[in-house]
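Session log. Operator J.P. requested a structure for one protein chain; no other inputs attached. Running the standard single-chain path with token output.
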Amino acid sequence: MIETENLILRAVEPADVDLLYEWENDMRLWQVSNTIAPFSKYQLEQFVKASSLDIYQTRQLRMMIDVESENEQQTAGMIDLFDFEPYHNRAGVGIMIHEKWREQKIACRALQLFIAYVAQELGIRNLYCNIAADNSASIRLFTSLNFELIGCKKEWLRVRTEYRDELMFQLIIAQAGGNSASS
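Structure written below.
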């Protein structure tokens, strides 16, 4: 568990399957997660079981984002590390905050905490993210934490009958203390 004031990043637990089932099958989120078909509870149970495997084996890590308020802990979202390349010290990152918890700086705080963790514990030096060009909230989030726009994939994402651009952002993490800095 990784904690800071009122915010906890924790491993996925079997008790999270119902929440994951709700979120992963929310069709409004599919265009940002590249999902095209619903997930069964069985699939999600298998995912949770596999999440206990070594990150060097699976090349991915999902953590749940919990918020503590009024002596109660509630799950506000999740953050993913994917395409982990330990030799090159790089990976992709994605974050989802449930709409009930948006616009409360939770995503920013969770992403800051996650960046420090992956830099210090996994030796990550490069993080990247892919964001639909029309997702202004995500663009603001990642650029506020020094992710730089490094490219645009034209007409990359199909949304129903049209195609949209996808932007790629990168953060090069400074080696000293895991502080973020672009070079």
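Operator note: The longest helix spans residues 106-122.
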